[in-house]
């Protein structure tokens, strides 16, 4: 993944966390807390992202290409991502408890953006490895950022670093801490 693909992935992770932060439970109400919602939403999005990427790989493998390849790959990936996300949102268990209409719309937005930004850019010979890595990175970093954000809420942090700047720095530190796996398993750095 190039740096621009990683930035899109990081922005979608931050968007997932911010949307769930806006639905924080009030005292006395029996609704899921923010971390639980982030984990649920990120799992739904990660699953839809992986399935849509796999289906796109299947379409490209059997050379179901029409017209201008650059444009039709993007259109095909986006249509597959929307259909898969809609299907997963229809059958996912526990959606009455964890999902709202707002979160469903966010899922329908994030999965096509992730798919367009990353899946169409993966090298064909190592496609499934890159797809699995990106989906796993999205899930792991979403879960971890949610935990970090709950700890940051009680910490004293300078105003200039609160919010988005701290989240971006945190995600890049997560990425750097896990980048050693690229050298160990995949023979390249970063």
Query: Whole-number average pLDDT?
Result: 83
What is the gyration radius calculated from CA atoms?
A: 17 Å
Largest sheet: none
Helix content bin? over 70%
Distance between the termini: 9 Å
Per DSSP, what share of the residues sits in E-state strands of 2 or more residues?
under 5%
Order of helices and strands: HHHHHHHH
Shape: globular
Weakly predicted, low-confidence segments: none
Instruction: Work out the number of β strands.
Output: 0
Number of helices, where a helix is a run of at least 4 consecutive DSSP H or I residues: 8
Structural class: mainly alpha
Topology:
Elements: H1 3-21, H2 34-61, H3 69-91, H4 95-98, H5 101-118, H6 127-152, H7 164-178, H8 180-185
Question: Explain this structure to me?
Answer:
With 190 residues, this protein is mainly alpha-helical. It is 73% helix and 0% strand. It contains eight helices and no strands. α1 packs antiparallel against α2, α2 (34-61) crosses α3 and α6 (127-152) packs across α7. The model has no long low-confidence stretch (mean pLDDT 83).
